[in-house]
Design goal:
Helices cover 19% and strands 27% of the residues. With 234 residues, the chain is an alpha+beta fold. The chain has a 6-stranded mixed β-sheet, with helices on one face. A 4-stranded antiparallel β-sheet has the order 1-6-2-3. A two-stranded antiparallel ribbon has the order 4-5. It is elongated and about 60 Å long. The two termini are 39 Å apart.
Length: 234
Amino acid sequence: MKTGLLSLIQICLISCLLVACGGRQMDASQVTAATLTDLTTVNLDTIVGEDYRIGAQDKLNVRVFQVEDLSFDEIVVDSSGSLQMPLIGAVRAAGLTPAELSRELAARLGERYLRNPQVTVSVIEAASQKVTVDGAVTKPGVYVMRGRTSLLQAVAMAEGPTQIADLTKVAVFRTINGERNVALFDLEAIRQGRAQDPEVFGDDIVVVDTSRLNSTVRNLVTALPALAIFQVLR
């Protein structure tokens, strides 16, 4: 399964960044029920992309060159998003790339304890970055994202749309500043290169074919143009 998902992900290479904004997972009742995969972490057998943003409960490998007492084959980012390190205590890790965290740890260690420390951080298990793909796709479910993930890649994780899917209005739900937002995208135009392929973020919910939404949300969503602009759901 894991190898198959990686192969599908590699097929989709188009990626374009939207405004970066995280968010808590929205109420799943806003979309139709789906048969979800287990919400378990997935061991990474490849190096995550350099743009990957570390999240709570991620497992990291931390190496401080020639200092075994400060090196860890496996260390977990706590629920607050911090990494607990000897000597320097809690270091904010969530939201940083592995390279950024490496520099932060080196700076903190270099302030008082080591001269020109060399620190390397890598992600060995990504626990927090998941996207829900629902609606008219082959395998609706919750999928772990490895690094930057585009809308096309997210749909590919669910093994693509079904034959009856309407690709002209694909809804992406996202919580921004505590409010539930939705944007519509024309997946067919994205496939043909006529529109940009947006990035999806952890806890986003992608619904292929808005007819699969419940009636209240569908009425709100179908009134929106497919302009890739997030708007608040009222």
